[in-house]
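Reposting from the mailing list since nobody answered there.

I have sequence plus structure tokens for a pair of proteins and want to know whether others read the tokens the same way I do. The first protein:
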Amino acid sequence: MNDSHLLSNAVPYNQDGSPEGNNPHYRSLPHNQDAEQGLLGALLVDNRAVERVSEIVQAPHFYVPVHQRIYEAIIKMTERGQEASPVTLKNYFDEDPDLEELGGASYLAELAASVLTVVNVEDYARRLYDLFMRRELISLGEGVVNDSYSHTLDSDAEKIIETAESQLFSLAESGSGSGGFVTLRDSVVIAIEHAEKAFNADDGLTGVTSGLIDVDKKLGGFQKSDLLILAGRPSMGKTALATTWAYNAAKAYAQSGGKEGAVTAFFSLEMSADQLAGRILAIESGVSGDAIRKGTIQQSDFRSFVEASQMMSQVPLYIDDTPALSIGAVRTRARRLKRQHGLGLLVVDYLQLLRGSGSRQSSENRVLEVSEITRGLKAIAKELQIPVIALSQLSRAVEQREDKRPQLSDLRESGSIEQDADVVMFVYREEYYLARTEPEVGTDKHMDWQDKMDRAHNVGECIVAKARHGPIGGVRMHFDSNLTKFSDLEESRLSAEY
């Protein structure tokens, strides 16, 4: 189709998109009017072609404004079950000044008349999408340049990088047409592959290992695209358990050469990176964390430190202790780590310390903010195809009950935590509460209390209260308070689920 005939007022362009003439400093934004005209003409000739292109190209992807409106009108009419042709569209554009400049309604007829075949309509659509993406990249780049020149208190260089990276990934996700239906046949193939992987694995895992046999048996490992919530009251051991899982997964990755475990990111919004490293040093060396902090260690312990540090240096566990991160910043940094190092597991400690995109002005807004955060964490899990473990506080309602075992209704601030999560787990240590209710020594009650304390000593529970893809129930674990470490409890493998 001849541009000079249909677009008589258009500026002439060279093959590379630059205008004809002697001005080497001016470049037109990338576009292809022939492809736009060819696509619109094909749709006007055969409305069924809309089904093949509507998920690839959208109205804003056209460069010429009137082409955007023509495409939008075609889509609307076909969605209503009406025919979109030069005749039926004529009334919509009778008084359109942009179309008047191109010859009025006769321009629609010329678009349709110039079409030889609709076979290549998808090629046109992909070409237009590619050119649109190039224009958006140019705009994004100009925005980065302008923001970099602008010095404000609210926007430092790191913030500009975060914003640019977020925009870049959002652009990559938008409108590519990569989504849509998957046939049952393809889905079954994937399901069989997962089953085969579990069958061939010695431990029967399809997901990322927690390093704890009983937890892995209950969950089958941490599954890709799952959001797992680990909740508990203060001093129950949420951070200790999450740290154990994160370190075990990263350690398994290092020791297996990437065949097991995962590269792990740990967003520690409550504890500093060196405090978290100190806990891991205690776990790996077997030296009490309290002794490490106070310096009451033996000379022989330094050999354990050296061996532990050598192991820790090989473990792909990345810690980010930036306080008050937004969910957008977590998404950006997770994407970056995925791209650079192949992220396979993400842990956030803890959910209530994250910020949403808005401000916290009321309890109602806070509920909405927590909902935004949980949706954002689930989106990260699906987008990056990794399990995301988010720690969460429980409400004080637990303390008001005689039975302190947590329930789903104890999740703080938002029902969306339970709704968005694929798995909800509680960490619970009966010993913590029993130690605070000691009866008078010498009484029958004290003897009963002592029996309970003996059974609960150094025992913690991981209670799976919700599992979208599996059974619920409890797992007993050994808890070493000196090392703040959870490990397998032999007797739990012999006990029935409860």
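The second protein, same order (residues first, tokens after):
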Amino acid sequence: MILDLFRLDGKTAMVTGANTGLGQGLCIAFAQAGADVIGVARRSMQQTKEQVEQTGRVFQEIIVDLSQKDAVSRIMEACDRLCSCVDILVNNAGIIHREDAKDVSEEDWDKVIQLNERLVFFLTQAMANRYFLPNKSGKVINIASMLSYQGGIRVPAYAASKSAVMGITKALANEWAPFGVNVNAIAPGYMATNNTANLRNDADRSEAILDRIPAGRWGTPEDLMGAGVYLASEASAYVNGFTLAVDGGWLAR
């Protein structure tokens, strides 16, 4: 049956930035589809844990500061203690720094690139070498952005990093698809999350954004659930290197 292809029974999914927002929503979606979940964040994920466990699935957490260069090694060490295999990796954690391009410091630039780009590549590389390539299976979902397609305003480091996420997605798909590893991305539109709080609180900017979205509203973490389960499941077995926009029609305008 076709719906069986969307089941994640027996799988373990790792989601970075799992304490809130889109990451939390994806954790819940995977659990509802039958997967156990490992959340990665720098602070407690108790709320996510409670919601995952309500589905009857197991939630484990790895507390680590993802902005640090030893984050990948610490995550891999924790994986050895927590599970025998990771089947699904979601690179969701990210930050945004808003400032005129002429004023961005090297320090602020590096912080964004470290978390949004460098971590994405090296964590995926480590997971592939440990689990995906030896097992000839695995699902990688990178969280891209509308700014993977556009330049944005006052967010040059973020735009650069999210353009890189799309490029990394294609590059890894080219190399790993022959080994049964699917690497894809989701580009959320304007979502009601912590990262967009300032925009949503600016009445003029919020109105301008909503005027361009055909769906007429900000997205929610729930809007990403279906796309996440699809790309994590066997239903997307022949989807490689693609970035799926979940944007209420933003890019169509």
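Reply #1 (J.P.):
I read it the same way you do. The longest helix spans residues 106-135.
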